[in-house]
Amino acid sequence: MAAGLPVFYLIPGLGADERVFQFLQLSGTVHVLRWLPPQSPAELLPHYAARLAVAVPATQPCWLVGVSFGGVLAQEVAALRPLARVVLISSFISPRELPWVGRLARTTGLHRLVPARLLPLLPRVAQWFFGARNGGEYRLLRQILRDTDAVFTRWAIARLLEWPGRPWLPVVRIHGTTDRLLPAGAALSQHALPGGHLIIISQAAEISRILNELTTVE
User: Which Gene Ontology terms cover its molecular function (predicted)?
Assistant: First the structure.
C-alpha cells in the first residue's frame, strides 16, 4: 500500500446503506459505494461489480470493506482492481459457508417463492437473525428494513445464492461469534468478535481499531 493516508471504500450489506457505517472512526479517506439499481432481473454479479467498480480508480491502492452481501461485491470488485485489499465483515468467501437453509435454496430455487417484502414485515424475526441486541440497534435495523427495495432484494438474493465464491482471493475477515445468518464464519476469520451479524454496529470501535491497524502494517 502506498504511503500516505489510506483510502477506504465501504460497501454495505443487502438492503442497507451508509447508516451501518456511522459509528466507524477510520483514519483516512472514506467513500461509501452505494448500491446501483440492477439493469435487469438477470444482470450477472460480475457485470454489476464492474459497474460498481467505476467509482474505484484502477491505479489507486485502497481498502474495500464489505459487510455481508457487500463483502461478496467487495471480492468481485477486487478481482477488477488488483491494487485493492479486501476486508470482509460478517461475510463469506464460499457457498459452503452458507447455513443449511441457504444451501437448500441454492439447490432448489426455494427463495423464488418467498415474497421479497416478507422480512421488512417481520422486524422482530429479523432482530433475532441479525442479533440486534438493544433498542438502538433494533431501531436502526427496522429503519433499514423499512427502506429496503424489494426489486433489488430479490435480485441480490438470487445473485448471492448462485455465487461460486472466491476462496483463493486474499482477504481479512472479521466475524461475530454468534452470527446466526452466517454461523460458520467466525471459525474461518482472523478476527472473531463477540456479537451477531450486526457487529459493524455493536463492535464498531473494535472494527475501527482493526481497520486502522491494518493500514499501518501494509
Answer: hydrolase activity
